[in-house]
């Protein structure tokens, strides 16, 4: 069986909203500490204390790739990632409009689109996230980890229900 490649696995429950991932991303790619230039974005709902890191999902049938009129977006099979060739890109922003995750961005400063490129296989957001809200794992592991987390939640709920029954 061929390896599926690695992907960013995001666990929102672990995210504290510190935004360090955004800053290291922008420094790594653009040499400036500016969250607007980050390829990963922390969506915040302060009142609920909810923080969700959002980044390119490296979709298998990527809408951005399908819609690009000049075929500037392609899949790099080596790292299983979707890449933008800026020498071909005309800056039409069609890819920005169709991304279901809001992960394709456009920089008015550089006049080009940008997205997560997995830092060429060494994602800086993963290296610097102390909470491990962002991890870089084999694609098939994401499903296993999600199943494990769901099973743990069900197990806790059952134990709590059993304890309540005993009290009655």
What does this structure look like?
By secondary structure, this protein is of the alpha+beta class. The chain has a domain of 45 residues: Alpha-Beta Plaits (2-Layer Sandwich), CATH 3.30.70.20. It has a two-stranded antiparallel ribbon with strand order 1-8. It has a two-stranded antiparallel ribbon with strand order 2-3. A two-stranded antiparallel ribbon has the order 4-5.
Q: Which labels suit this protein?
A:
168 residues, alpha+beta, Alpha-Beta Plaits, two-stranded antiparallel sheet, two-stranded antiparallel ribbon, 8 strands, 33% helix, 20% strand, elongated
Structure summarized in a few sentences:
With 168 residues, this protein is α+β, with helices and mostly antiparallel strands.
- Uncertain residue ranges: none
Overall pLDDT confidence: 90
Strand order of the largest sheet: 1-8
Q: What letter string, H or E per element, gives the SSE order?
A: EHEEHEEHEEHEH
CATH topology type of the domain at 57-101: Alpha-Beta Plaits
- What's the total number of strands? 8
CATH class value of the domain at 57-101: Alpha Beta
User: What is the level-2 CATH architecture name of the domain at 57-101?
Assistant: 2-Layer Sandwich
> Strand share of the residues?
15-25%
User: How is the biggest beta sheet arranged?
Assistant: 2 strands, antiparallel
Shape: elongated
Structural class, from secondary structure content?
alpha+beta
Please specify the SSE layout and strand pairing.
Elements: E1 6-10, H1 20-30, E2 41-45, E3 50-54, H2 63-67, E4 73-76, E5 81-84, H3 94-98, E6 105-107, E7 112-114, H4 124-128, E8 134-138, H5 139-167
């Amino acid at each position: 069986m061929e390896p599926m490649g690695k992907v960013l696995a995001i666990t929102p429950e672990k995210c504290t909203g510190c935004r360090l991932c955004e800053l290291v991303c922008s420094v790594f790619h653009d040499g400036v500490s500016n969250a607007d230039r980050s390829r990963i974005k922390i969506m915040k709902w302060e009142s609920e204390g909810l923080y969700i890191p959002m980044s390119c999902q490296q979709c298998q049938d990527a809408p951005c790739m399908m819609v690009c009129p000049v075929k500037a977006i392609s899949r790099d099979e080596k790292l299983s990632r979707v890449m933008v060739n800026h020498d071909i890109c005309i800056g039409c922003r069609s890819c920005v409009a169709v991304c279901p995750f809001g992960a394709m961005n456009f920089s008015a400063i550089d006049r080009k689109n940008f997205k997560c490129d997995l830092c060429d296989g060494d994602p800086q957001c993963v290296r610097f996230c102390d909470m491990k809200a962002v991890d870089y794992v084999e694609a098939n592991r994401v499903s296993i980890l999600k199943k494990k987390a769901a099973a743990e939640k069900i197990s806790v709920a059952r134990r709590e229900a059993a304890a309540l029954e005993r009290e009655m």
